[in-house]
Amino acid sequence: GQSPHEGWQRCNAIRYDRRQQPALPVRTDLSATLFFAEPDEYDGGELVIEDTYGSHRVKLPAGHLILYPGSSLHKVTPVTRGARVASFFWLQSLVRSDAQRRQLFELDVAIQSLTARVPGAAELVSLTGVYHNLLRAWSDV
Questions:
Q1: H or E element in which residue 131 lies
Q2: Which of 14, 59, 111, 140 has the greatest number of beta carbons closer than 10 A?
Q3: Taking a C-beta distance cutoff of 8 angstroms, is the pair 76, 42 a contact?
């Protein structure tokens, strides 16, 4: 029988930039996939990502990129026609924790939304300060 996790993978937690000597370790906090082929040029080949919010199937237009937690369980479905051309790579965040990055993201989205709805709102200075103070406290630099 087929394993329920067959084809699924997680990115290695650490990769090494071998252009540096000695090789520089890089955490794979975030994974990215950049699509080069149009979705109608191939069948199958969807990137499937499992995270705390469920399963997501992704097949984006050429030139589009998806960014997702490196800790996510993910796989690519078999290509049955054409060729799936994409590039994948990893990024190390200044903020090591997934939970802290999510909180910063949600705070940033709220700040941007408030800025669009109420430009110049007095609360923006305070909220932006909270964002930057959290980033300062949580960053690895």
A1: helix 122-138
A2: 59
A3: no
